[in-house]
Every structure is written in structure tokens, then in C-alpha cells.
Write a structure and sequence with these properties.
single chain; about 0% strand
């Protein structure tokens, strides 16, 4: 293994993939309504901003909740694997 290779996770370690969610679609709709509201007035702008903020707050809350329930080893800091300047290969 070269010092430039990234560390490989141990065999059997599962990758966490979040479940299906309507949040990306709702955020897209909220942003679209907000952009339409910029040109069409406050009657369209305010619901777009409210929807966008509600979805963002919910999405961040859900992501934090999922992160808190990951196994302990996922919370540990990742070690820096980049070689120090003294150990880098020299180009000649």
C-alpha cells in the first residue's frame, strides 16, 4: 500500500444510506416558488421562503438525528493520511 492510497474501510463495514425522502423535491419546489416570487410579488415570495426554510430546518434536524444514531466508530475523527513534506516523493 502506497502512502498516497486512501485507507480502505474494514471488510463488512456497512455504508450508511439515508432512506427515501420527499425533502429534496419539497426544497426544489420551495426554491422555485421563492424565485417566482421575486418577480411576481410578496404573495408568491412569502410562501416560497416559508416552505424553503421549513424544509431546510426539517432536513438538517433529520440529518443530525441520523448522525447521532450512527455507531460510535463513525463519530471518531478521520486521521490525516497525506504524507508530510519530508516524506513526499521528490521530482527530479
Amino acid at each position: 500500500m502506497s502512502p498516497l492510497d486512501r485507507p480502505v474501510p474494514p471488510t463488512g463495514e456497512e455504508i450508511h444510506i439515508p432512506g427515501p425522502s420527499a425533502q429534496p423535491v419539497l426544497l426544489t419546489i420551495g426554491i422555485t416558488i421563492t424565485l417566482l416570487g421575486i418577480t411576481n410579488g410578496l404573495i408568491v415570495l412569502i410562501p416560497g421562503v416559508v416552505l424553503t426554510l421549513l424544509v431546510l430546518i426539517g432536513w438538517i434536524r433529520d440529518a443530525r438525528h441520523e448522525y447521532e444514531h450512527l455507531p460510535l466508530e463513525h463519530h471518531l475523527e478521520v486521521q490525516d493520511t497525506t504524507p508530510s513534506p519530508e516524506n513526499r516523493p521528490h521530482a527530479e
